[in-house]
Write a structure and sequence with these properties.
Length: about 350
Protein backbone atom coordinates (compact mmCIF):
# COMPACT_ATOMS: atom_id res chain seq x y z
CA UNK A 1 0.00 0.00 0.00
CA UNK A 2 0.98 3.65 -0.41
CA UNK A 3 0.75 5.80 2.72
CA UNK A 4 1.26 9.55 2.88
CA UNK A 5 2.34 11.03 6.22
CA UNK A 6 1.89 14.73 6.92
CA UNK A 7 4.42 15.88 9.50
CA UNK A 8 6.20 19.21 9.79
CA UNK A 9 7.62 21.90 12.00
CA UNK A 10 9.29 20.38 15.06
CA UNK A 11 10.78 17.06 16.08
CA UNK A 12 7.70 16.47 18.23
CA UNK A 13 5.67 15.96 15.06
CA UNK A 14 8.35 14.59 12.75
CA UNK A 15 10.10 11.92 14.82
CA UNK A 16 6.95 9.96 15.76
CA UNK A 17 5.97 10.12 12.08
CA UNK A 18 9.32 8.59 11.14
CA UNK A 19 8.81 5.86 13.74
CA UNK A 20 5.52 4.89 12.08
CA UNK A 21 7.08 5.17 8.63
CA UNK A 22 9.82 2.74 9.61
CA UNK A 23 7.24 0.16 10.67
CA UNK A 24 5.28 0.59 7.44
CA UNK A 25 8.41 0.36 5.29
CA UNK A 26 9.56 -2.76 7.13
CA UNK A 27 6.19 -4.30 6.20
CA UNK A 28 6.80 -3.67 2.51
CA UNK A 29 4.63 -0.57 2.14
CA UNK A 30 5.61 2.62 0.31
CA UNK A 31 5.70 5.77 2.44
CA UNK A 32 5.95 9.35 1.28
CA UNK A 33 5.90 12.51 3.36
CA UNK A 34 4.13 15.78 2.79
CA UNK A 35 5.39 18.79 4.66
CA UNK A 36 6.73 22.30 4.56
CA UNK A 37 10.22 23.76 4.46
CA UNK A 38 11.30 23.46 8.09
CA UNK A 39 13.03 20.63 9.95
CA UNK A 40 11.23 17.98 7.90
CA UNK A 41 12.87 19.17 4.69
CA UNK A 42 16.20 17.91 6.06
CA UNK A 43 15.37 15.11 8.49
CA UNK A 44 12.92 13.16 6.32
CA UNK A 45 15.21 12.74 3.26
CA UNK A 46 18.07 11.82 5.60
CA UNK A 47 15.89 8.96 6.87
CA UNK A 48 15.43 7.74 3.29
CA UNK A 49 11.89 8.93 2.57
CA UNK A 50 10.65 11.11 -0.29
CA UNK A 51 8.98 14.33 0.73
CA UNK A 52 6.82 16.84 -1.09
CA UNK A 53 7.50 20.20 0.53
CA UNK A 54 5.18 23.15 0.10
CA UNK A 55 5.80 26.27 2.23
CA UNK A 56 2.71 27.05 4.29
CA UNK A 57 1.80 28.26 7.77
CA UNK A 58 -0.75 27.72 10.49
CA UNK A 59 -3.65 29.91 11.54
CA UNK A 60 -3.18 32.46 14.30
CA UNK A 61 -5.35 34.76 16.37
CA UNK A 62 -4.58 37.60 13.96
CA UNK A 63 -7.28 37.73 11.27
CA UNK A 64 -5.16 39.88 9.00
CA UNK A 65 -2.37 37.34 9.16
CA UNK A 66 -4.85 34.50 8.67
CA UNK A 67 -5.87 35.83 5.27
CA UNK A 68 -2.46 35.00 3.91
CA UNK A 69 -2.37 31.70 5.80
CA UNK A 70 -5.68 30.61 4.24
CA UNK A 71 -4.28 31.28 0.78
CA UNK A 72 -1.19 29.23 1.65
CA UNK A 73 -3.31 26.35 2.99
CA UNK A 74 -5.43 26.29 -0.17
CA UNK A 75 -2.33 26.32 -2.38
CA UNK A 76 -0.71 23.52 -0.40
CA UNK A 77 -3.92 21.46 -0.42
CA UNK A 78 -4.10 21.66 -4.21
CA UNK A 79 -0.51 20.47 -4.48
CA UNK A 80 -1.06 17.63 -2.01
CA UNK A 81 -4.28 16.59 -3.78
CA UNK A 82 -2.26 16.11 -6.96
CA UNK A 83 0.34 14.08 -5.10
CA UNK A 84 -2.31 11.82 -3.54
CA UNK A 85 -3.86 11.13 -6.95
CA UNK A 86 -0.61 10.72 -8.86
CA UNK A 87 1.02 8.47 -6.28
CA UNK A 88 -2.07 6.34 -5.70
CA UNK A 89 -2.10 7.08 -1.97
CA UNK A 90 -4.31 4.69 0.01
CA UNK A 91 -4.43 6.64 3.30
CA UNK A 92 -3.14 9.86 4.84
CA UNK A 93 -1.75 10.00 8.38
CA UNK A 94 -1.53 13.56 9.73
CA UNK A 95 0.54 14.20 12.85
CA UNK A 96 -0.82 17.61 13.84
CA UNK A 97 0.79 21.00 13.40
CA UNK A 98 0.45 23.49 10.57
CA UNK A 99 0.70 20.92 7.76
CA UNK A 100 -2.37 19.01 8.96
CA UNK A 101 -4.81 21.59 7.55
CA UNK A 102 -3.83 21.27 3.87
CA UNK A 103 -3.21 17.52 4.21
CA UNK A 104 -6.66 16.94 5.70
CA UNK A 105 -8.28 19.09 3.01
CA UNK A 106 -6.46 17.19 0.28
CA UNK A 107 -7.54 13.85 1.75
CA UNK A 108 -11.13 15.07 1.92
CA UNK A 109 -11.09 16.22 -1.71
CA UNK A 110 -9.67 12.91 -2.93
CA UNK A 111 -11.85 10.78 -0.61
CA UNK A 112 -8.81 9.07 0.84
CA UNK A 113 -9.03 7.92 4.50
CA UNK A 114 -7.57 10.42 6.94
CA UNK A 115 -6.09 9.31 10.26
CA UNK A 116 -4.98 11.88 12.84
CA UNK A 117 -2.47 11.48 15.65
CA UNK A 118 -2.19 13.94 18.54
CA UNK A 119 1.07 13.78 20.50
CA UNK A 120 0.25 16.18 23.33
CA UNK A 121 -2.02 16.02 26.36
CA UNK A 122 -3.93 18.99 24.92
CA UNK A 123 -4.94 18.81 21.27
CA UNK A 124 -3.59 21.39 18.86
CA UNK A 125 -5.79 23.65 16.77
CA UNK A 126 -5.15 21.80 13.51
CA UNK A 127 -6.16 18.41 14.89
CA UNK A 128 -9.26 19.84 16.55
CA UNK A 129 -10.39 21.42 13.30
CA UNK A 130 -9.59 18.37 11.18
CA UNK A 131 -11.01 15.72 13.52
CA UNK A 132 -14.60 15.77 12.14
CA UNK A 133 -13.22 14.74 8.75
CA UNK A 134 -10.95 11.96 10.03
CA UNK A 135 -11.76 8.27 9.80
CA UNK A 136 -9.81 7.61 13.00
CA UNK A 137 -8.43 9.93 15.67
CA UNK A 138 -5.49 8.65 17.72
CA UNK A 139 -4.03 10.25 20.84
CA UNK A 140 -0.95 9.66 22.93
CA UNK A 141 -2.55 10.49 26.28
CA UNK A 142 -6.07 9.99 27.58
CA UNK A 143 -6.16 13.64 28.64
CA UNK A 144 -6.35 14.65 24.97
CA UNK A 145 -9.77 13.03 24.62
CA UNK A 146 -11.28 16.06 26.34
CA UNK A 147 -10.52 17.91 23.09
CA UNK A 148 -10.81 14.94 20.71
CA UNK A 149 -13.74 12.92 21.98
CA UNK A 150 -13.29 10.15 19.42
CA UNK A 151 -9.65 9.78 20.39
CA UNK A 152 -8.25 6.29 20.76
CA UNK A 153 -5.30 6.10 23.15
CA UNK A 154 -2.27 4.49 21.48
CA UNK A 155 0.72 6.33 22.96
CA UNK A 156 3.41 8.25 21.13
CA UNK A 157 5.35 6.39 18.42
CA UNK A 158 8.99 6.25 19.50
CA UNK A 159 12.03 5.64 17.34
CA UNK A 160 14.03 2.45 17.59
CA UNK A 161 17.00 4.63 18.57
CA UNK A 162 15.16 5.45 21.80
CA UNK A 163 13.91 1.95 22.56
CA UNK A 164 17.16 0.11 21.80
CA UNK A 165 18.48 -2.19 24.54
CA UNK A 166 21.61 -0.45 25.86
CA UNK A 167 23.28 -1.39 29.13
CA UNK A 168 24.52 1.26 31.51
CA UNK A 169 28.21 0.44 31.09
CA UNK A 170 27.99 0.91 27.32
CA UNK A 171 26.25 4.23 27.87
CA UNK A 172 28.82 5.48 30.37
CA UNK A 173 31.64 4.49 28.03
CA UNK A 174 30.02 6.47 25.20
CA UNK A 175 30.27 9.64 27.29
CA UNK A 176 33.60 8.83 28.96
CA UNK A 177 32.08 8.72 32.45
CA UNK A 178 33.53 6.94 35.48
CA UNK A 179 31.14 4.13 36.51
CA UNK A 180 31.23 5.33 40.11
CA UNK A 181 29.57 8.67 39.36
CA UNK A 182 25.90 9.52 39.53
CA UNK A 183 24.76 10.98 36.21
CA UNK A 184 22.37 13.86 35.49
CA UNK A 185 21.07 13.99 31.92
CA UNK A 186 19.97 17.34 30.47
CA UNK A 187 17.88 17.79 27.35
CA UNK A 188 15.82 20.68 26.07
CA UNK A 189 14.21 18.81 23.19
CA UNK A 190 15.19 18.52 19.53
CA UNK A 191 16.44 22.13 19.33
CA UNK A 192 17.67 22.66 22.87
CA UNK A 193 16.46 25.24 25.40
CA UNK A 194 18.59 28.30 26.11
CA UNK A 195 17.16 29.09 29.55
CA UNK A 196 17.64 25.47 30.64
CA UNK A 197 21.22 25.55 29.34
CA UNK A 198 21.87 28.66 31.42
CA UNK A 199 20.39 27.04 34.52
CA UNK A 200 22.66 24.01 34.10
CA UNK A 201 25.71 26.23 33.71
CA UNK A 202 24.77 27.78 37.06
CA UNK A 203 24.25 24.33 38.59
CA UNK A 204 27.60 22.98 37.39
CA UNK A 205 29.44 26.14 38.41
CA UNK A 206 28.08 26.10 41.96
CA UNK A 207 28.05 22.31 42.55
CA UNK A 208 29.77 21.49 45.87
CA UNK A 209 28.32 18.09 46.73
CA UNK A 210 29.62 14.61 45.90
CA UNK A 211 31.21 14.34 42.42
CA UNK A 212 28.76 13.78 39.57
CA UNK A 213 28.66 13.62 35.79
CA UNK A 214 26.38 15.73 33.62
CA UNK A 215 25.46 14.64 30.09
CA UNK A 216 24.19 17.85 28.56
CA UNK A 217 22.42 17.84 25.19
CA UNK A 218 22.59 21.56 24.55
CA UNK A 219 20.97 21.75 21.09
CA UNK A 220 22.39 22.33 17.64
CA UNK A 221 22.07 26.11 17.95
CA UNK A 222 24.05 26.30 21.17
CA UNK A 223 27.75 27.13 21.39
CA UNK A 224 27.94 25.99 25.02
CA UNK A 225 31.26 24.57 26.23
CA UNK A 226 31.86 22.35 29.28
CA UNK A 227 31.96 24.32 32.52
CA UNK A 228 35.09 23.69 34.63
CA UNK A 229 34.41 22.28 38.09
CA UNK A 230 36.57 19.48 39.59
CA UNK A 231 33.44 17.93 41.11
CA UNK A 232 31.54 17.70 37.83
CA UNK A 233 32.33 15.78 34.65
CA UNK A 234 30.39 18.10 32.30
CA UNK A 235 29.93 16.45 28.90
CA UNK A 236 28.28 18.80 26.37
CA UNK A 237 26.92 17.44 23.08
CA UNK A 238 24.90 19.36 20.52
CA UNK A 239 22.65 16.47 19.57
CA UNK A 240 22.27 12.77 20.37
CA UNK A 241 21.18 10.46 17.56
CA UNK A 242 21.05 7.42 19.84
CA UNK A 243 18.93 8.57 22.78
CA UNK A 244 18.87 5.07 24.29
CA UNK A 245 22.44 5.75 25.47
CA UNK A 246 21.39 9.01 27.10
CA UNK A 247 18.57 7.41 29.08
CA UNK A 248 20.66 4.37 30.02
CA UNK A 249 23.40 6.61 31.43
CA UNK A 250 21.20 9.06 33.37
CA UNK A 251 20.22 8.46 36.99
CA UNK A 252 18.13 11.63 36.80
CA UNK A 253 16.92 13.63 33.80
CA UNK A 254 16.26 17.37 33.74
CA UNK A 255 14.27 18.37 30.68
CA UNK A 256 11.49 20.30 29.05
CA UNK A 257 8.11 18.57 28.90
CA UNK A 258 7.57 18.04 25.21
CA UNK A 259 5.22 15.18 24.41
CA UNK A 260 7.94 12.93 23.03
CA UNK A 261 10.22 13.55 25.98
CA UNK A 262 7.45 12.63 28.40
CA UNK A 263 6.76 9.42 26.46
CA UNK A 264 10.47 8.58 26.26
CA UNK A 265 10.89 9.07 30.02
CA UNK A 266 8.02 6.66 30.64
CA UNK A 267 9.27 4.10 28.11
CA UNK A 268 12.75 4.10 29.67
CA UNK A 269 11.57 4.39 33.31
CA UNK A 270 13.68 7.51 33.78
CA UNK A 271 13.05 9.74 36.83
CA UNK A 272 12.91 13.39 35.87
CA UNK A 273 12.61 17.01 36.88
CA UNK A 274 10.45 18.62 34.20
CA UNK A 275 10.63 22.33 33.40
CA UNK A 276 7.66 23.01 31.10
CA UNK A 277 7.90 25.75 28.53
CA UNK A 278 4.80 27.80 29.20
CA UNK A 279 4.53 30.34 26.41
CA UNK A 280 2.96 30.49 22.97
CA UNK A 281 2.27 27.26 21.09
CA UNK A 282 4.24 25.22 23.64
CA UNK A 283 1.96 26.07 26.58
CA UNK A 284 0.67 22.49 26.39
CA UNK A 285 3.90 21.36 28.10
CA UNK A 286 2.42 21.94 31.55
CA UNK A 287 -0.33 19.44 30.71
CA UNK A 288 2.24 17.01 29.31
CA UNK A 289 4.27 17.24 32.51
CA UNK A 290 1.13 16.59 34.52
CA UNK A 291 0.81 13.15 32.93
CA UNK A 292 4.00 11.96 34.65
CA UNK A 293 3.69 14.10 37.75
CA UNK A 294 0.19 12.74 38.35
CA UNK A 295 1.49 9.19 38.89
CA UNK A 296 4.60 10.25 40.79
CA UNK A 297 6.84 9.65 37.78
CA UNK A 298 8.38 13.13 37.68
CA UNK A 299 8.68 16.41 39.56
CA UNK A 300 7.62 19.64 37.90
CA UNK A 301 9.56 22.85 38.33
CA UNK A 302 8.29 26.11 36.86
CA UNK A 303 10.70 28.14 34.77
CA UNK A 304 10.60 31.08 37.17
CA UNK A 305 11.82 28.80 39.98
CA UNK A 306 14.92 27.42 38.27
CA UNK A 307 17.03 28.80 41.13
CA UNK A 308 15.73 25.80 43.10
CA UNK A 309 17.13 23.29 40.62
CA UNK A 310 20.56 22.67 42.23
CA UNK A 311 19.00 21.84 45.60
CA UNK A 312 16.40 19.56 43.99
CA UNK A 313 19.06 17.68 42.05
CA UNK A 314 21.23 17.29 45.15
CA UNK A 315 18.28 16.03 47.21
CA UNK A 316 17.23 13.44 44.63
CA UNK A 317 20.73 12.16 43.94
CA UNK A 318 21.23 11.82 47.67
CA UNK A 319 18.09 9.67 48.01
CA UNK A 320 18.39 6.57 45.77
CA UNK A 321 15.17 5.11 47.17
CA UNK A 322 13.20 8.15 46.02
CA UNK A 323 14.84 8.00 42.59
CA UNK A 324 13.84 4.34 42.29
CA UNK A 325 10.23 5.09 43.28
CA UNK A 326 9.96 7.87 40.71
CA UNK A 327 11.52 5.65 38.02
CA UNK A 328 9.07 2.81 38.72
CA UNK A 329 6.13 5.23 38.63
CA UNK A 330 7.24 6.65 35.29
CA UNK A 331 7.47 3.14 33.90
CA UNK A 332 3.83 2.45 34.67
CA UNK A 333 2.93 4.78 31.76
CA UNK A 334 5.28 3.14 29.27
CA UNK A 335 3.91 2.44 25.78
CA UNK A 336 6.63 0.88 23.65
CA UNK A 337 4.56 -0.38 20.71
CA UNK A 338 2.74 2.82 19.69
CA UNK A 339 4.41 2.93 16.26
CA UNK A 340 3.17 -0.57 15.52
CA UNK A 341 -0.33 0.28 16.75
CA UNK A 342 -0.56 3.39 14.58
CA UNK A 343 0.80 1.61 11.51
CA UNK A 344 -1.73 -1.20 11.93
CA UNK A 345 -4.65 1.24 12.21
CA UNK A 346 -3.50 3.19 9.14
CA UNK A 347 -3.31 -0.02 7.11
CA UNK A 348 -6.73 -1.13 8.34
CA UNK A 349 -8.29 2.12 7.13
CA UNK A 350 -6.36 2.02 3.86
CA UNK A 351 -7.72 -1.49 3.21
CA UNK A 352 -11.27 -0.30 3.88
CA UNK A 353 -10.80 2.48 1.33
Amino acid sequence: MVIAIAAAGTGGHIFPALAVADVLRAGGHHVLFIGGDRLEATVVPEAGYPIVSVPTRGLTGNWKGNAGAIVDVARAARRFRGVIRNEGVDAVLAMGGYITGPAALAARLTRVPLILHEQNATAGTANRLASPFARRVLVAFRAATKDLRRGQVVGNPLRAEVLADVNRQEALSRYGIDPGLMVVGITGGSQGAQILNEAIVDLVTAWSHDPIAVVHIAGTRSELKPVPNPLVHHNVVAYEDEMAYFYAAADLVVSRAGALTVSELAATSSPAILVPYSFGSASHQAENAGILVGVGGAIALSQDQLNRLPAMVADLLGDPDSLSRVARAAGTLAVRDAAEQVAMIVLEEAARG
